[in-house]
């Protein structure tokens, strides 16, 4: 039997560890949300960035994806600003980022996770165990739904 082939895309997902990594994470968000999706640059960063935990996906020393998580103040954690560079979409980067966020949330004692999902990617979050709740609403003129998942 042959050994398994090495991962063709060695990707590490973890918390950003320094200012350079955080700057790179914000650059990915600008690329995806502002440049691709047309969101307003002045709305891309918000008050939650100062208290959130920022996760990054790295390959060959390049930050290719990001997500953040923060305490909602009601015992839940909110994951958001999940962004993956276009060339890396469909390769499992988003799932790895979400798993890193879930692992962190679990280690911090959270058992309930919420997010605002763009309706175009609801299926992605459903595959990760999220369920949509409530009606469609708009953020930055993009339709979203609240989604929730319990963290075992």
Summarize the structure.
With 152 residues, the chain is of the alpha+beta class. It is 28% helix and 36% strand.
Account of the 3D structure:
The protein has 152 residues and is α+β, with helices and mostly antiparallel strands. The protein has helices at 19-36, 41-44, 93-107, 122-127; strands at residues 12-15, 53-59, 62-71, 77-84, 112-118, 131-139, 142-150. It has a seven-stranded mixed β-sheet, sandwiched between helices. Mean pLDDT is 93; it is low at 1-5.
Mean pLDDT across every amino acid position: 93
- β-strand amount: 35-45%
The secondary-structure element order is EHHEEEHEHEE
Pairing-aware structural class of the strands and helices?
alpha+beta
Rg: 15 Å
> In this structure, how is the largest beta sheet organized?
7 strands, mixed
Total strands: the figure is 7
Report the oligomer: single chain
Low-confidence stretches: 1-5
**Percent helix:** 25-40%
- The largest beta-sheet arranges its strands as 1-2-3-4-5-7-6
| First-last Cα distance | 36 Å
Number of helices: 4
* Large-scale geometry: globular
Core attributes:
4 helices; 28% helix; 152 residues; alpha+beta; 7 strands; 7-stranded mixed sheet
Secondary structure elements and their pairing?
Elements: E1 12-15, H1 19-36, H2 41-44, E2 53-59, E3 62-71, E4 77-84, H3 93-107, E5 112-118, H4 122-127, E6 131-139, E7 142-150
Parallel strand pairs: 4-5
Antiparallel strand pairs: 1-2, 2-3, 3-4, 5-7, 6-7
């Amino acid at each position: 039997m042959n050994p398994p082939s090495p991962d063709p895309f060695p990707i590490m997902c973890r918390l950003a560890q320094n200012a350079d990594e955080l700057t790179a994470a914000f650059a990915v968000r600008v690329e995806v949300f502002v440049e691709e999706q047309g969101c307003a640059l002045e709305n891309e960063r918000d008050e939650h960035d100062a208290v959130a935990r920022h996760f990054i996906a790295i390959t060959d020393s390049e930050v290719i994806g990001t997500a953040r998580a923060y305490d909602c103040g009601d015992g839940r954690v909110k994951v958001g600003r999940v962004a993956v560079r276009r060339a890396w979409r469909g390769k499992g980067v988003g799932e790895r980022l979400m798993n890193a966020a879930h692992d962190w949330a679990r280690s911090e004692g959270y058992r309930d996770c919420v997010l605002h999902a763009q309706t175009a990617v609801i299926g992605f979050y459903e595959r990760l165990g999220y369920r949509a709740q409530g009606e469609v609403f708009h953020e930055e003129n993009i339709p979203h739904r609240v989604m929730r998942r319990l963290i075992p």
